[in-house]
Amino acid sequence: MTNNVMIGVKGLIKRFGNLEVLSGVDVDIHNGEKVAVIGPSGSGKSTFLRCLNCMEDPTDGAIIFNGVNIADMRVDINVHRRDMGMVFQQFNLFNNKTVLQNITLAPMTIAARAHRKAWWQNRFKKKAKRIPLAPFAEIRARIDNEAMALLARIGLQDKANAYPSTLSGGQKQRIAIVRALAMHPKVMLFDEPTSALDPEMVGEVLDLIKELANEGMTMVIVTHEMGFAREVADRILFMDGGVIAEEGTPTEVFDHPRCERLKAFLSKVL
């Protein structure tokens, strides 16, 4: 792990009406670090994760990513979300699109907008100053090839033209992960990625996440899989009552917990 901060969270507060779910969270996520977030239901884990890419707008506080406070309402959050892959509990695949279309939708949309913008700009430039543009068919082919390579990585290239409704939960979640990877993110956010899976399908998803971790991907993972958190994470955040009640290495948190609330939690889940 380096000392470079990938995401800096400062005084994060989130309220839903009169209910305060996050009560002043301060934490830095470093480049290449794997951070697991654990805690009881209702502790604010998923809300914290969703605030990191402003899927939930913070009520107060700052989230510094790419040197920008993305919690500032004046910031175009969609630009910064391109660098943050998000994997949900319920997969969130588009059922009316094939597996290949699910993976290529976001990169194809961004590429098409960039190509169209450059084409219009070229119309008003002298020939010598025009931006070289590849035919969009070539761009489409490159994106499709990258998507097929990702499917081959998880052994599902034969499912490229299948629809999500025909797949198992484990297959859907692995495809959801490579869909996020297709955007070449700087950080991956996982919101309890195995909670909707049958027990026999959990392993294949966790193996893929472990593989990404071993490759140095920065990750924040909300999980109830304590064994997985111990094995993969560089640091564990224990959340309770909307705050980070304790944090440390897996050994520190699991083998030498300090606060009574963490001790009580671990006694029920280990």
Overall description:
The chain has 270 residues and is α/β, with parallel strands linked by helices. 40% of the residues lie in helices and 23% in strands. It contains nine helices and ten strands. The strands form two sheets. It has a six-stranded mixed sheet with strand order 6-7-8-3-9-10, with helices on both faces. β9 (235-240) and β10 form a beta hairpin. α3 runs antiparallel to α4. The longest helix has 25 residues, at 99-123. The chain is globular. The two termini are 28 Å apart.
Short description:
The chain is of the alpha/beta class and 270 residues long.
Mean pLDDT: 94
Largest sheet: 6 strands, mixed
Tally of helical runs = 9
Low-confidence stretches: none
Radius of gyration, rounded?
Answer: 20 Å
Structural class by secondary-structure content: alpha/beta
Give the N-terminus to C-terminus distance in angstroms. 28 Å
Our estimate of the beta-strand percent is 15-25%
Output the strand order for the largest sheet: 6-7-8-3-9-10
Q: State the total count of DSSP E strands.
A: 10
Task: Please bin the fraction of helical residues.
Answer: 40-55%
**SSE pattern, N- to C-terminal:** EEEHEEHEHHHEHEHEEHH
* Envelope shape: globular
